[in-house]
């Protein structure tokens, strides 16, 4: 049995090294674009309420969601996209959060699948989202934000002119924002979970 080996010369090795560094730099650049600075769980938006909320069911059934649906429940709203690398990293934790609390009558989670381009049709967005969920074996219902009505309202309370993905809001039973996370870093899911648990405990006290 023979084994063919290829030795990388010094020049090819240097090229490969620089390509590797360029790929890392590009990934960091994209992540920076997707995660604006200054928006965290201690955001100035905490204590504010949304002026608008309109979500439409996209996959897995559901119903149209408006501001009135925030009353009486601790709510998590997660804006994500199948095209967004940090969103794909975070999404399993979103699913896990829903699985943990979904049987609690005072809890609800809305996973809002967002388009990469504004000219995409709703049917195409639904197909892309359904394919992602099926491939990852996730059973979480998803919603759409037609005409970006809800994202505009979120941007207003955040004081941002651009929208970062993913963005996660945690609201109390009165519809008041209690936590905001823009972008994703490993470990942040535990902060979201702890806040939800605290708000549910407060509602039962």
Structural description of this entry:
- This protein is of the alpha/beta class and 205 residues long.
- It has one domain: Glutaredoxin (3-Layer(aba) Sandwich).
- Helices cover 41% and strands 16% of the residues.
- The protein contains five helices and six strands.
- A six-stranded mixed sheet has the order 1-4-3-2-5-6, with helices on one face.
- Strand 5 and strand 6 form a beta hairpin.
- It is globular.
- The N terminus is likely disordered.
Label the overall shape.
globular
Percent of sequence in beta strands: 15-25%
Number of structural domains: 1
Average pLDDT number: 84
CATH fold topology: Glutaredoxin
Tally of DSSP helical segments? 5
Q: How many strand segments?
A: 6
CATH superfamily: Glutaredoxin
Strands side by side in the biggest sheet: 1-4-3-2-5-6
CATH class: Alpha Beta
Distance between the termini: 72 Å
Helix-strand string: HEEHEHEHEEH
Low-pLDDT segments? 1-13, 23-39
Radius of gyration: 20 Å
CATH architecture: 3-Layer(aba) Sandwich
Major sheet attributes: 6 strands, mixed
Could you say which structural class the secondary elements and strand pairing correspond to? alpha/beta
Percent range of helical residues: 40-55%
Name the descriptors:
205 residues; 5 helices; six-stranded mixed beta sheet; alpha/beta; Glutaredoxin; disordered N terminus
Which helices and strands occur, and which strands form pairs?
Blueprint: H1 10-34, E1 56-59, E2 74-80, H2 85-101, E3 107-113, H3 122-136, E4 142-144, H4 149-158, E5 167-171, E6 177-182, H5 188-204
Parallel strand pairs: 2-3, 3-4
Antiparallel strand pairs: 1-4, 2-5, 5-6
């Amino acid at each position: 049995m023979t084994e063919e080996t290829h030795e990388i010369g010094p020049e090819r090795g240097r090229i490969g090294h620089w390509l590797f560094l360029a790929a890392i730099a590009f990934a960091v650049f994209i992540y920076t674009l997707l995660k604006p600075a200054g928006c965290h769980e201690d955001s100035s938006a905490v204590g504010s309420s949304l002026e608008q909320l309109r979500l439409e069911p996209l996959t897995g059934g559901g119903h149209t969601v408006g501001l009135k649906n925030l009353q009486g429940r601790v709510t998590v709203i997660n804006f994500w996209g199948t095209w967004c690398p940090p969103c794909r990293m975070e999404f399993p934790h979103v699913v896990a959060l829903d699985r943990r609390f979904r049987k609690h009558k005072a809890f609800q989670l809305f996973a809002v699948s967002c388009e990469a381009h504004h000219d995409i049709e709703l049917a195409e967005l639904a197909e892309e989202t359904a394919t992602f969920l099926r491939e990852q074996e996730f059973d979480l219902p998803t919603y759409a934000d037609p005409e970006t009505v809800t994202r505009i309202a979120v941007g207003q309370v955040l004081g941002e002119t651009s929208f970062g993905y993913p963005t996660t809001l945690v609201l109390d039973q009165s519809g008041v924002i209690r936590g905001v996370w823009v972008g994703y870093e490993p470990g942040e899911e535990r902060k979201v979970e702890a806040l939800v648990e605290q708000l549910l405990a407060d509602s039962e006290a």
